[in-house]
Amino acid sequence: AQKVTQAQTEISVVEKEDVTLDCVYETRDTTYYLFWYKQPPSGELVFLIRRNSFDEQNEISGRYSWNFQKSTSSFNFTITASQVVDSAVYFCALRALIQGAQKLVFGQGTRLTINP
Amino acid sequence: GAGVSQSPSNKVTEKGKDVELRCDPISGHTALYWYRQRLGQGLEFLIYFQGNSAPDKSGLPSDRFSAERTGESVSTLTIQRTQQEDSAVYLCASRSRDRGLSYNSPLHFGNGTRLTVT
Question: Which residue is closest to A35 within chain B, CA to CA?
Fold first, then answer.
C-alpha cells in the first residue's frame, strides 16, 4: 500500500527558530517520487519540491532544506530562521506507478504557525 | 500562462440536490486529478484522468460521485443527491505528460470549489 504519514498535526514556534516537518512514507515500488506542497491561509496549494527515489542528495533552497533518507523512508523538510509568512499547512506526497496508473497520495498535513 | 481554473469558487446547495463542479486544466496537461479537502483535514484522492480515461476511480466515496473529462480538456465532477458530509473544498490539479519512465512532473492545483450542503 502507498501511504504517507505526517505525524505532527500542528507545530507552533517563535519567529527565527528552525523547524523540521517530518514525513514518512510507505511504498512497494522501487521507482517513486516525493513532493512537498505548501497551503497558505489563502488556500491554494503551492509546489515546493520533488525528489525521485534514485536521488538521495539533500537539497537546500534559501531557508528551505530537505533530507531524503531511503533507509528510514523519510523525507523531512526544514525551515531555517522561520518567518511569519511561513505559516501554512504543509503536505508531503508520494507518487508511484500503481497497477498502471499514477497515483499521488498525500499525508494529512502539518499546520505550522510562526508567531512573531 | 493561465493556471488551473475551477468554477464555481463557492457553491451552496440544499441537501438532496445535484451539483456539478468544473475544472479547466492547464493547456497541454494530460493528467488531471480531483481531490477533496474537508475543513482542517488533508487531501483525499477522488479520481485521476489520463487523457479522457480514468485508470483510477478508487477514491470516489460512493456511486453518487462521478466525473468525466473531454479529451485532454475540461473535467466535471458531479455529485448527485448531495449530503451534508459532502461539504468540503474540491480541488482539481493537472500536470504535464511525463517523459518516458520519469513521472516527475508536479501537480498544479486550482483554487478549489468550496461546496456547502445545507
Answer: B106
